[in-house]
């Protein structure tokens, strides 16, 4: 070192190089303490040599080597000022253009930084490196801008500056590759510098990959090994920038050939080989996989985004390369699923789910399931943990798996059918099922149906065994057999499986064990179901509500207490907030968009919860809904009556204490009852009437109005009158319910109080035999009869309709009352109220159908006399109604008997109807049998051979009291297609305009309507077994009467011989041709084959298409030749009238209308049409090229030009004529 201090040694490059080489070999063997003591002086000497011989590469390289060793042994306690000159010299030559010098400087700089690790001087060294990066890295951009602004003379210098700046940047980046991991302090925390470096690396590799893909792939691991550790940087901006750069490098630098080469290469290096021989793509994957180590746990969210991009780049071909990484991501997802069960959410869970989703989408479900099998069987056996967390991801990201998952969940109700392992399986999977129900609205339907099955089946078995310890109604509301509203229909198939007979293995002991399991989870499931019901849509409530009802039916009252109290409290609060002037701050918003919808929602919820409530809770619920029964909102009142009807029908324990109050509420609510709520109100009335008719009524208390049987019967009469009025309600479903309730009530009263029905006396009172108690049906009939003296026509008409329904149902029991009842009903035909007339006609139609033929014969005259009053009134279709009844009477009593009481003007058409009836019978039974019967076969039928009463079918109020008799089946007899129109016309001509039987059948065209019809043309009920037998008998008779003429083989199969005729080309006659409508190219297919059709069309229209183009001599001839000679075929004449254009297209150019030479304008000549020109569309006119369009328009331009010229000439002549005076114009 003392020799290097001499001037002559420093001045000579050879001597300086020799001493530096010797010093470089000696310094590693010198003790550190000696070097540390002499480090300051040694640094000054070596820096002086470097500054003096910076041109000599050998001296400079050896001096840098010695300076690096000296700097590594310097005293760090001396401060940065002593180390700064040496460190700056090493840093300055780290980007030198000479490779050996640059490499030696970088090695010496790395050695010095390793010495400074953990010392305060590392911060200063890092700042110095950051300063150099800030000066060098922006150099290419600045040089490029300067070159863009330079003149042409300075352009070479500017380009050289760009080259030097780029070289310096690349050299510095090469140094940073080894130096950057050793830095710390402000340099690493400076996000701007790191992002600049990252962006530079990203852009460089992307451009390299575009220029040379193989080189880009080969060098890509170096970039990933440098940038991947930065994903764990402290700054969030750095992590995001680096992850974005890595994703861009994966997307732009990995071709498909590299993936194929990596697959075919060795999976692991052989023993003793270095990792450098690993395929570059495998090295990239290893770099990213190392970032998923536990020490980088804080960086997993960012790393997983890069991993997702890697999965996307690999695709299905590269799935085998990332199996290890896929397993690590699966472990993270499993941990995230366990954390989610413990209500612990983390950022890693979302990133891992996205990465796994990318793997499913791009690698394919097969590859994912190969690396991460579900292990469902092992999970059930308890040997391994099942990967159930993978199912939702497969559904979300794979279409096939999505359909598979839907099928698996759709089979959930099937697994709930009489299960034996519910005690263990439900406890194990209840949490997962609940999470799926809460988070997946699309799975709520099968889950609700499955839970409903479990509850109903368990209750059914225990109830059958008499061991049900719970309380509540026996039939919870909302099960499929009780759903009757449109909005309550389940979207899925009806669950009849839960109502089947229990199998032998499902014993009461199994049911008890299942009941205990279900009750244990009731406190968790009921709030979950309640929230889904309240916040769900109307469609979702349709299947969640029955599930709540079934679960509540097996739950203990203590479990239902809290949900019930919340429901009632919310219901009261909604009503209170709706009545308040100002909206409340804590107003209820769930359950609907307005207060009415919310009240309906919570009323439904209370209905479903009522199946498990005790008597005290039902009493509270009754008090809550009592004021709602007076509401004017139809939807709210309907829900309230529905709830009350369920309580009245199912909770006899409640009625035993509060029956008197319920009756009082029903009687008081009669004026306020709305039409929409009456159907459910009728259910309440049925229960109340049956209880009021009992000798001892429970729950009456001290109410005077129900103290005696007479007073109770008055209340019953009041309630029955409401039922009678409901048969004429506007709501169809209410009318149907009223008729059903009336008949059900009659059957119940007849069963409870059986007694024979006596006859009526002259005062329309039922004469009760002495010593005989009045029967139930008699009491009801008396109540309905009281409506005939009602104060309003509406009440009278409703009473008549109710009597008709009772007569229809109990014809055999009420036929004794017909002689006394008919005169009273017939007297109503003289009323001025058309409403009463309509109901009386319906009653008479029932009488004609259901009374015995003998009684009809006795009362035929008064019935027909009453009907003839409205025989000529066509308003409200009374005339047609009367005709229907007359025809039915004629079939029951005979045409001869009816004709005796029919006016003379209607007897002729009655005979016509009889003939058509006979014709119809002949058509059914065969022509031979009809001829043998004779003309008077219908009247020869005696009363003894006729049926005593008509066959009773299902009641159809719409057919009995309908305004349109087209569906009644008795308006007219069925006419044959051959004679129907002629017979109708003849009948119309022979009868008067006001005749009852005037006019043709209202269903004349129904024969060909394509429907399956009964006799009388009523649509058949194909579910009726009796009708099926009738059709079978009718079909056998029809086949026997009308055999076919087809030849049959030994197997009774028809042999059909096709008549194949040669197609002859029509010959054209001279001067004529085929009819234009019969030609192959005719546009009038509907006129083809009709003689003279084209001639008629030609005479009626002035169209060119129908104009005659042949000579007049061809129009004569016989009828046989008229079709060929009437019109000349357009195809034959067009050849002579069409000219060929330049494009080869045939067109009517209008040349035949051209005048002779010297004359102006057009002339008709021998043609009968006005002059015209037709130019067909040329497809070249649609061509995009202008020259093609120009050629196509060449011929059309001539035609348009000629017509324009003629039009202008005519316009000028007309103008000249109007300007000249009349004399001059002549």
TrEMBL record:
Domain RRP12 HEAT: 234-398, 403-533
Start-end of Low complexity biased regions: 943-952
Location of the protein in the cell: Nucleus
GO-annotated cellular components: nucleus
Domain RRP12 N-terminal HEAT residues, every copy: 1-187
Record field: compositional bias (Basic and acidic residues): 1177-1193
Polar residues biased stretches: 1111-1124, 1135-1148
UniProt keyword annotations, A-Z: Nucleus
Top-level division of the source organism's lineage: Eukaryota
The keyword Aminoacyl-tRNA synthetase appears for this protein: no
Positions of the UniProt region annotated as Disordered: 466-503, 915-1017, 1066-1085, 1107-1226
Bias (Basic residues) ranges: 915-925
InterPro entries associated with the record: ARM-like, ARM-type_fold, HEAT_RRP12, HEAT_RRP12_N, RRP12
Keyword Transmembrane helix: no
A Pfam family per the record: HEAT_RRP12_N
Similarity comment text for this entry: Belongs to the RRP12 family.
Protein name (record): Ribosomal RNA-processing protein 12-like conserved domain-containing protein
Lineage: Eukaryota, Viridiplantae, Chlorophyta, core chlorophytes, Trebouxiophyceae
């Amino acid at each position: 070192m003392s020799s290097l201090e001499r001037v002559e040694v420093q001045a000579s490059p050879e001597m300086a190089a020799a001493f530096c080489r010797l010093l470089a070999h000696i310094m590693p063997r010198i003790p550190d303490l000696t070097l540390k003591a002499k480090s300051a002086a040694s640094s000054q000497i070596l820096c002086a040599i470097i500054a003096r011989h910076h041109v000599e590469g050998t001296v400079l390289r050896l001096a840098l080597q010695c300076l690096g060793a000296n700097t590594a042994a310097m005293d760090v306690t001396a401060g940065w000022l002593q180390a700064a000159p040496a460190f700056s010299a090493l840093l300055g030559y780290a980007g030198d253009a000479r490779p050996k010098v640059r490499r030696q400087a970088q090695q010496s700089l790395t050695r010095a930084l390793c010495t400074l690790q953990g010392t305060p001087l590392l911060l200063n060294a890092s700042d110095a490196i950051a300063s150099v990066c800030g000066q060098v890295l922006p150099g290419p951009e600045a040089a490029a801008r300067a070159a863009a602004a330079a003149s042409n003379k300075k352009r070479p210098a500017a380009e050289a500056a760009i080259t030097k700046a780029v070289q310096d940047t690349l050299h510095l980046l090469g140094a940073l590759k080894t130096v950057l991991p050793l830095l710390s302090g402000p340099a690493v925390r400076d996000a701007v510098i790191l992002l600049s470096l990252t962006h530079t690396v990203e852009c460089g590799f992307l451009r390299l990959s575009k220029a040379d893909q193989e080189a880009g792939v080969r060098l890509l691991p170096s970039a990933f090994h440098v940038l991947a550790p930065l994903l764990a940087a402290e700054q969030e901006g750095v992590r995001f920038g680096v992850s974005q750069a890595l994703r861009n490098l994966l997307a732009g630098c990995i071709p498909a050939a590299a993936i194929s080469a990596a697959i075919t290469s060795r999976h692991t290096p052989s023993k003793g080989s270095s990792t450098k021989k690993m395929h570059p793509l495998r090295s990239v994957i290893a770099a990213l996989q190392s970032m998923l180590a536990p020490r980088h746990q804080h960086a997993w969210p960012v790393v997983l985004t890069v991993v997702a991009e890697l999965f996307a780049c690999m695709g299905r071909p590269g799935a085998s390369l990332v199996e290890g990484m896929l397993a690590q991501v699966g472990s993270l997802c499993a941990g995230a699923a366990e954390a989610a069960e413990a209500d612990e959410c983390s950022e890693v869970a979302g990133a891992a789910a996205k990465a796994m989703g990318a793997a499913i989408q791009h690698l394919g479900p097969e590859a994912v399931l190969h690396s991460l099998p579900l292990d469902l069987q092992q999970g059930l056996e308890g040997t391994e943990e099942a990967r159930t967390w993978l199912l939702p991801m497969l559904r979300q990201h794979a279409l096939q798996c999505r359909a598979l998952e839907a099928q698996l969940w759709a089979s959930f109700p099937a697994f709930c059918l009489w299960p034996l392992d519910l005690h263990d399986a439900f406890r194990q999977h209840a949490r997962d099922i609940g999470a799926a129900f809460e988070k997946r609205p699309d799975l709520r339907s099968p889950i609700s149906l499955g839970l409903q099955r479990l509850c109903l089946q368990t209750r059914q078995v225990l109830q059958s065994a008499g061991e049900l310890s719970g309380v509540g109604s026996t039939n919870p509301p909302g099960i499929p057999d009780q759903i009757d509203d449109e909005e309550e229909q389940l979207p899925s198939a009806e669950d009849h499986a839960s109502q089947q007979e229990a199998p032998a293995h499902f014993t009461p002991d199994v049911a008890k064990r299942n009941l205990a399991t279900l009750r244990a989870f009731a406190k968790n499931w009921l709030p979950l179901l309640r929230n889904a019901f309240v916040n769900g849509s109307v469609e979702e409530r349709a299947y969640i509500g029955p599930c709540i009802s079934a679960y509540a039916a097996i739950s203990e009252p203590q479990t239902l207490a809290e949900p019930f109290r919340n429901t009632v409290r919310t219901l009261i609060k909604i009503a209170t907030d709706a009545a308040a002037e100002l909206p409340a701050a804590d107003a209820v918003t769930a359950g609907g968009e307005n207060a009415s919808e919310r009240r309906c929602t919570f009323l439904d919820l209370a209905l479903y919860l009522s199946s498990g409530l005790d008597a005290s809770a039902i009493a509270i619920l009754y008090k809550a809904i009592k004021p709602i029964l007076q509401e004017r909102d139809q939807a709210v009142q309907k829900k309230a009556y529905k709830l009350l009807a369920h309580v009245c029908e199912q909770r006899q324990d409640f009625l035993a204490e509060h029956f008197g109050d319920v009756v009082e509420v029903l009687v008081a609510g009669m004026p306020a009852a709305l039409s929409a709520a009456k159907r459910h109100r009728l259910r309440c009335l049925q229960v109340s009437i049956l209880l009021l008719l009992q000798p001892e009524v429970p729950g009456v208390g001290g109410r005077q109005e129900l103290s005696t049987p007479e007073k109770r019967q008055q209340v019953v009469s009041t309630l029955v009158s409401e039922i009678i009025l409901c048969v004429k309600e506007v709501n169809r479903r209410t009318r149907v319910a009223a008729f059903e309730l009336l008949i059900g009530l009659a059957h119940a009263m007849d069963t409870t109080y059986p007694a024979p029905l006596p006859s009526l006396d002259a005062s329309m009172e039922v004469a009760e035999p002495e010593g005989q108690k009045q029967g139930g049906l008699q009491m009801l009939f008396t109540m309905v009869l009281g409506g005939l003296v009602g104060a309003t026509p509406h009440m009278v008409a409703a009473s008549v309709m109710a009597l008709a329904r009772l007569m229809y149902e109990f014809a055999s029991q009420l036929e004794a009352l017909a002689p006394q009842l008919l005169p009273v009903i017939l007297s109503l035909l003289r009323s001025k109220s058309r409403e009463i007339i309509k109901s009386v006609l319906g009653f008479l139609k029932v009488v004609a159908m259901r009374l015995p033929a003998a009684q009809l014969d006795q009362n035929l005259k008064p019935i027909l006399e009453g009907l003839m009053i409205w025989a000529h009134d066509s308003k409200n279709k009374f005339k047609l109604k009367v005709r229907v009844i007359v025809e039915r009477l004629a079939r029951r009593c005979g045409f001869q008997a009816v004709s005796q009481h029919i006016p003379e003007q209607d007897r002729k058409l009655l005979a016509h109807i009889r003939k058509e009836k006979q014709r119809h019978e002949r058509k059914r039974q065969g022509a031979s049998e009809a001829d043998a019967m004779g003309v008077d076969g219908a009247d020869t039928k005696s009363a003894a051979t006729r049926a005593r009463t008509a066959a009773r079918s299902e009641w159809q109020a719409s057919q009995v009291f309908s305004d349109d008799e087209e569906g009644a089946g008795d308006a007219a007899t069925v006419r044959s297609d051959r004679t129907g129109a002629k017979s109708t016309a003849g009948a119309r001509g022979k009868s008067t305009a006001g005749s009852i039987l005037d006019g043709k059948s209202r269903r004349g065209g129904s024969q060909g309507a394509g429907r399956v019809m009964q006799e009388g043309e009523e649509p058949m009920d194909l579910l009726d077994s009796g009708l099926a037998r009738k059709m079978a008998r009718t079909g056998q008779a029809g086949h026997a009467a009308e055999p076919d003429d087809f030849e049959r083989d030994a197997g009774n199969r028809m042999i059909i011989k096709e008549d194949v005729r040669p197609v002859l080309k029509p010959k054209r006659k001279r001067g004529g041709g085929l009819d234009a409508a019969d030609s192959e190219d005719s546009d009038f297919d509907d006129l083809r084959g009709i003689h003279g059709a084209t001639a008629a069309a030609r005479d009626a229209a002035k169209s060119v298409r129908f104009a005659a183009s042949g000579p007049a001599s061809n129009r004569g001839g016989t009828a046989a030749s008229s079709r060929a000679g009437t019109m000349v075929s357009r195809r034959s004449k067009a050849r002579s009238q069409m000219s060929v254009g330049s494009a080869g297209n045939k067109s009517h150019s209008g040349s035949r209308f051209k005048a002779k030479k010297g004359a102006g304008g057009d002339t008709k000549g021998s043609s009968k049409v006005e002059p015209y020109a037709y130019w067909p569309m040329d497809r070249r006119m649609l061509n995009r090229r202008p020259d093609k369009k120009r050629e196509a328009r060449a011929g059309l331009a001539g035609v348009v030009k000629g017509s324009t010229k003629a039009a202008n000439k005519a316009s000028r002549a007309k103008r000249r004529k109007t300007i000249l005076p009349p004399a001059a114009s002549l």
